[in-house]
Amino acid sequence: MWADSGEYERVLGRAAEHAKAWLQALPARQVRPSKTADQVNSAFGGPLPAEGMDPEQLIDFLARNAEPGLMAMQSGRFFGWVIGGTLPSAMAADWLVSAWDQNTGLRFASPATAAIEQAAGQWLLELLGLPEGSDVGFTTGASMANFTALAAARWRQLEAAGWDVNANGLNGAPVLRVLAGAERHESLDMALRFLGLGAPEVVPADAQGRIEAAALRRALESGKGPAIVCLQAGNIHSGAFDPFPEAIAAAKEHDAWVHVDGAFGLWAAAVPELRPLWDGVALADSWGTDAHKTLNAPYDAGIVVVRDVAALRPAIGMHAEYLPQEDHGPGDPMEKSPELSRRARGVPVWAALRALGADGVRALVAGRAACTADLAARLADVPGVEVLNDVVYTQLSLAFGSDARTRAVTEYIMADGRVWMSGSRWHGRDILRVSVSNWSTDSDDIDTSVQTIRDALAATA
């Protein structure tokens, strides 16, 4: 039976109250959760009750019992992994997306959300300086953006070699070489595995994790057949960008498709002052990124851009008699990401872009890089702190002498709760890795971070 608007109003009102209480508590809240997943499960698990729960009581129960197990990822003091927060405008737009409940696979079925995503895609091409006329698809995240782009690359490179992968699959196909740097992100390997392409040929990287263009050229010259070259905009540990002009030139001399994994780094292309990092990136064939990581849109904000529209759509899309698809230039959203049914995830991206404007996006990205540089400079003056990377963007890798001391400092910081920074291992050393991605991170958060590290060093001396 259809629920009247009053029931929606009551339940959504309760959810809004809890959401506002959560957001208001963030400035003073410890970042780490206070309960583990197993502890939280005691409230949510067990046999499914035979009787239902009143919707308002359910929302109260959900908020009350989930809160101790939530990480304050929205806080400006969260520096773990590469995770942004959510801009208020983008969050509100995401709420509307849920209320509208549109399946954004077909332009015919949901003209408004398809048009909004088309506009967001055009703005992204303009903002990032990517080729006019490229297809832009909205995926769940950067991993699926890479998968989508590489599916188009696989289709095109095998088609050029005389093989129809859609009809014949990979059994008996020409060998398709994939080359990638030694410090690529592991999600790239995952996408290649999903596509049946196996592990890439590994090309050496320099001390900052950048692929060595000369080594890439030699590797391409040593083999033959269709090829895909995967480059990186933003190393997970150093923030370094591959040398795009030289690497792409080498790839194009061998007719290779070039894909750029720019999960968080592609946004640097919006900032003229960061041009030494991204110069030449637009010469590639496809790009993947995530608007949650740097633009601070809500989750489900992956973005794939493919120059070769004629390769992307047959690689990803499908046609069925019951689907009212149109023959038109923009293409249906379902031809640009590997889903038929999905929420209108491009709408919050549009909202973030429209709320900020081009100047606001540039200020947001440049500001995160400036915060990282400031934090690095201040920590470099703290006895016992080693800054391990050239700080060029939003990533900072730290060590504190021995691996044991670094692990102890990391454990102190995570247990302390004032900030959250995650451990990793880079160049054979345990490190503390800092990623400045949240739009709300400010000088006070940097002050707190420096003091927390000072306290950790004192406590582990």
From TrEMBL:
<keyword id="KW-0456">Lyase</keyword>
<keyword id="KW-0663">Pyridoxal phosphate</keyword>
<feature type="modified residue" description="N6-(pyridoxal phosphate)lysine">
    <location>
        <position position="293"/>
    </location>
</feature>
<protein>
    <submittedName>
        <fullName>Glutamate or tyrosine decarboxylase</fullName>
    </submittedName>
</protein>
<dbReference type="InterPro" id="IPR015422">
    <property type="entry name" value="PyrdxlP-dep_Trfase_small"/>
</dbReference>
<dbReference type="Pfam" id="PF00282">
    <property type="entry name" value="Pyridoxal_deC"/>
</dbReference>
<dbReference type="InterPro" id="IPR010977">
    <property type="entry name" value="Aromatic_deC"/>
</dbReference>
<keyword id="KW-0210">Decarboxylase</keyword>
<dbReference type="GO" id="GO:0004058">
    <property type="term" value="F:aromatic-L-amino-acid decarboxylase activity"/>
</dbReference>
<comment type="similarity">
    <text>Belongs to the group II decarboxylase family.</text>
</comment>
<dbReference type="GO" id="GO:0030170">
    <property type="term" value="F:pyridoxal phosphate binding"/>
</dbReference>
<dbReference type="InterPro" id="IPR015421">
    <property type="entry name" value="PyrdxlP-dep_Trfase_major"/>
</dbReference>
<dbReference type="InterPro" id="IPR002129">
    <property type="entry name" value="PyrdxlP-dep_de-COase"/>
</dbReference>
<dbReference type="InterPro" id="IPR015424">
    <property type="entry name" value="PyrdxlP-dep_Trfase"/>
</dbReference>
<dbReference type="GO" id="GO:0019752">
    <property type="term" value="P:carboxylic acid metabolic process"/>
</dbReference>
